[in-house]
Amino acid sequence: MFRHDMSEFHGLLPRADGTFRGDRLRTAFSEPDWVPYLLTSGDSPAGFAFVRGLTGPTRVLNSFFVVRGARRTGIGLRAVREITARHPGPWSVAFQDANSAAVRFWRRVATEIADDAWTEERRAVPGRPEAPPDVWISFHARAATHD
Q: What CA–CA distance (Å, rounded) separates 2 from 62?
């Protein structure tokens, strides 16, 4: 579903068997510097997040997806808050300018987590000179506090 949603912005089509590539999924579950998160709503899966760079200087929210039926319920913002608090420090998230919902969401997330202490920049997509640049938002997340 994630790749299907993103195909709108990247012009990608599924393979002949109807599936999209799954390398990030395999990597998120097999590489030591990555961690996958399943987002749930009650007993139902509602999305996922893949984090990379756990031991590096900056954690990257490599993939983030909420199913359409759960969007605009607060699940995405809650998930990002919890995930970034589990891995405090510098964070970066990429998205596309053409995805207006993502633009609004990630700017809101950055403001909620870091107030006005976040940056936004456009970077070329590695290996895809024809693609429009990705937008990268960077911020610093604090550790979760326990009362």
A: 12
